[in-house]
Amino acid sequence: MSDSVKKTDSIINLLFEAGLLKRVRRSGWWVVGIKDPESVAEHCFRCAVIGYALAKLEKADPYEVTLMCLFNDIHEARINDHHKMASVYFDSLGAENAAFDGQVADLPEPIGSELKKMRQDYLAQQSPESVIARDADILECLVQAKEYHDHGNEHAKLFFKKAPEHLKSKSARRLWRQLKKTDSSLWWQKISEFKR
Length: 196
Description:
The chain has one domain: Orthogonal Bundle (Hypothetical protein af1432). It contains 11 helices and no strands. The relative contact order is 0.12. The protein is globular and about 60 Å long. By secondary structure, the chain is mainly α.
């Protein structure tokens, strides 16, 4: 098998593996009684949208932030999503890193090295982009909790207590303050109103 075929195959394999995230469910929502929670892919998509907006508001690199948001949970295609209680019983970060390293090991350059660098930056939480990407991840969880709460799950409100304390950027904290006061169905109700 030629080197170019191997490189192409590694990219194709990553595409199929990323598709698995459409079926992997966010397990933390099961704990609060959500029967059919969002998938990891759904979480990553909105996280990237939030990350882009936060990067623009905070004058950071939107490409870097969006990349971190899109690839932040890709390792869950191999090890599944684990709620916070799981980390009491095993080294979840070690498992995440091992899975991610395996996913990018055979990718051609510059793809593999860029993704490795992105992951290291995200975990170090030293750059403005990594902090904003983490804020986007937390804020997406809060947006989802707000939607679940607005649709009748009282336990989803538990996420409102601790998660906001971890938001670091001014823009993320400002969005959260407004978001928690907003009805999550208001956006479509305004669009749906008939003009008279």
